[in-house]
Amino acid sequence: MVAADFNELLSINIEHAPLRLVDNALRIGNSRLTLDLLVEQYENGLSPEDLVRAYDSLDLADAHAAIAYYLRNRDKVRAYLHGRKREADTFKQAIEAKHIPLTRDELLARRSGMEIADAPPGK
Predict the structure, then answer these.
(1) How does pLDDT run across 22-48, given as a tens digit for each residue?
(2) Is 37 exposed, middle or buried (0-12, 13-18, 19+ CB in 10 A)?
(3) Distance from the CA of 8 to the CA of which of 71, 93, 106, 115 falls in 20 to 30 A?
(4) What is the model's pLDDT at position 14?
(5) DSSP letter for each residue of 54-112
(6) Strand, helix or coil at 2?
(7) How far lies 80's CA from each of 11, 40, 114, in Å?
């Protein structure tokens, strides 16, 4: 093999992480799996192969590439994940502020009302 053929054989195709932004979340490849979940599952011991078995829309090469991106950019990814958690906490607080918790008696009264409404005619 001549040097030119060898260089061509080993030419490196630089690929970027298979991440895309959808609805304010980074998703892996063409799947709906978020980077958040991939990192969590990876940190809990799942391998790329385990992830592909668990999420059938995930491509094995994309799983490996996303994990490699995470390992090379832990600080950036952790900052992103921290921001996502803050955003989720803010959203949760806004929802909870709109909904006043019901007492047990109020829940039972609603349940009773639904049972009456769902009862067959004449009962």
Answers:
(1) 998 999 999 999 999 999 999 999 999
(2) middle
(3) 71
(4) 64
(5) HSTTS-HHHHHHHHHHHHH-HHHHHHHHHHHHHHHHHHHHHHHHHSPPPPHHHHHHHHH
(6) coil
(7) 33, 13, 44
